[in-house]
Amino acid sequence: MAGMSLRDHGLIAAAVLVALALPPWLLRDTNRGDASAPVVAPLAAPATPPPLRAAFARTLFAPPAADALPDDAPALLGVVGRLGRDAVALVRGAEGTRTLSPGDSVDGWQLRSLAIDAAYFTRGGQTARVPMPGTDDQR
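Given the sequence above, the corresponding structure tokens read:
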């Protein structure tokens, strides 16, 4: 400490004072005497906890429930390209095999989007998630 100047000692003393004064200043009660401040009740646990029967009855690693695909939905053979950029779907429809980009249609079904393991088609108000061959949730 012999090599420190008077200015350095003053800066250290100011930092110590700020470190000691700041926590009480931050924890002060700012609503003293303010009648317009809302009074918040403490949080309480629910009277009865929700039943856990449904959670215990469910299998732990069950595959997601697959909606039944319409019979005339196109079959997805594969997805080629980079998702979100230039990916296309290889699908088999009534007229044979085609490649579709999102927005293209086959057999009345419009390809809405592609995922790594499925294609999402719409027709009117119907939607269909067509899984990739070889996945557990295919028809």
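Residues 102 and 108 are 14 Å apart (CA to CA). Try to locate this feature in the token string yourself.
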